[in-house]
Amino acid sequence: MQHCVRKVMFAAFTAVFATALFLLTPQPANLANAYAYSNNGNNGENAYANFDNHLQNLYHECNLSAKGLSFNTFKLAVTGFYNLKREGQIAAHKNRVAIVDFTKPSNEKRLYIVDLATRSLVYHTYVAHGKNSGYIYAERFSNNPESLQSSLGFYRTEETYIGQHGYSLRLDGLDKGFNENARSRAIVMHGAAYVGEDYVKRAGRTGLSWGCPAVSEAESGPIIDYLKSGNCMFIYGNNINYINSSKYLNFSGAINYYTQSQP
To answer: From edge to edge, which strands make up the β-sheet containing 96-101?
Structure first.
C-alpha cells in the first residue's frame, strides 16, 4: 500500500514538475499541445518520443550545436517544414530547409541550409536583415510595403531571375499576417557587396538590405541554385506574437505527418 502511495505521489510530482518546466521555458503557445500529445496514452507517448528522437538525431548529425544554432530554433523550423508538407505547400520530395536565425547579430553566421535527406549542413554563412529592423540585431519585423524591415515566418522558394541585384531568388511568404506580402514587396534572396567575411571584418557587421535576406555575392549563385524551385526557408526572430500565432508551429500536426510518412 505504501509503495502504491509513493508511486502515485511521485507521478503527481513528476507531472507538476514537467508542467512547471514547460511553462518556464519559452515555447510557442500553439506548441503547448505537444505536452498534452505526449501524455495522450501509449500511442501519443510513442509518437512524441519518436518525433523528438528524430529531431535530436537530425540536429546532432548536422552538427548544428557546434555551429551555434539552438535545438529549439531547429525544432521550430522542422516542425513548420513538416506542416508545410502536410498542407501540400512543400512537395513531398523536397528536403532542403534554409534557417535564418535573426536572434543572432549580423556579425555572426546565421544562415543555416540543411538537407534533411542526407542529414547534413550544406551552407553556413552570413545573411543581412532589413535596415529598419535594427542595426546589428534584427529586432523589428514587418509585412508592410515600404517598411524596409525583414519579415518572419516560412517561405517557399520559387523562380530565379536577373534583376537589380543580379541573379536573385523569388520567395513566396506562407505565414499570413507576417510575410504573405513578400512577393509584392520584392523580398528576395540576392547577392550583395555588403555581406560576407571581408565586409564583416571591416565593418564589424553586415550591411543592411531593404528587407531581403541578402547573402554574399560570392556565395549567392550556388546558394540560390541549391534552394530554388520549391524548397523551404524559415526566418526566425525574437517575436512572441509570431511564435504564438503561426499555424505552421503546430507540433501535433508535424508529429502526425512524420509518423504517417514513416515506412
So the answer is: 120-125, 111-115, 96-101, 232-236, 153-163, 166-173, 188-192, 215-216
